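Backbone-to-sequence.
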């Protein structure tokens, strides 16, 4: 599998361009009520310095970026450890920014590892055709976690380059709508208090 180093950058740029094109159509009234707290956005809010905007526009950008990041990470994981998922014994996936490797019966590798098996030697054994041990899968998870964190920071860095363009668009399209909604609410409260 050939990995193209600039593919993620191009896809991130495209995601931001699509988000910027969508942003004028965002309306506060179209926001869905959520029963649970979003687990995707907080990792990006501080990194991108976008903590003063409504969740709706932020979530639209972040879910797109996060999906690209995970897709790119899984391609890298498959290229680095081609035999890890072969045969269906192990599964590599990402949940809420945490890299997981689970066995075919659903147990996380961290639950299966015996502390005495931590000394494993080289990860190059994962390239061999022999069955992947729990210790090797645990070691691979550590390396894959480092890879995911590196890709996350690379993605955020790429998005930061477009920060001024994003904040200008937010000021032009989101801020006036939020202000109008706040003004309407104040007017409604004032009318109710006068009655």
């Amino acid at each position: 599998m050939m990995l193209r180093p600039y593919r993620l950058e191009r896809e991130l740029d495209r995601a931001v361009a699509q988000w910027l094109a969508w942003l004028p159509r965002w309306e506060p009234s179209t926001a869905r009520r959520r029963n649970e707290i979003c687990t995707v956005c907080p990792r990006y809010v501080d990194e991108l310095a976008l903590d003063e905007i409504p969740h709706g526009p932020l979530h639209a950008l972040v879910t797109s970026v996060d999906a690209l990041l995970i897709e790119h990470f899984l391609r890298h994981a498959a290229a680095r450890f081609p035999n890890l998922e072969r045969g269906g014994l192990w599964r590599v996936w990402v949940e809420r920014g945490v890299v997981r490797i689970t066995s075919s019966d659903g147990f996380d590798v961290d639950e299966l590892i015996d502390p005495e098996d931590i000394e494993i030697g080289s990860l190059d054994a994962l390239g061999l055709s022999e069955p992947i041990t729990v210790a090797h899968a645990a070691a691979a998870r550590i390396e894959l976690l480092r890879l995911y964190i590196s890709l996350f920071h690379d993605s955020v860095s790429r998005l930061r380059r477009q920060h001024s363009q994003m904040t200008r668009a937010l000021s032009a399209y989101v801020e006036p709508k939020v202000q109008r909604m706040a003004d309407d609410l104040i007017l409604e409260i004032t009318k109710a208090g006068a009655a």
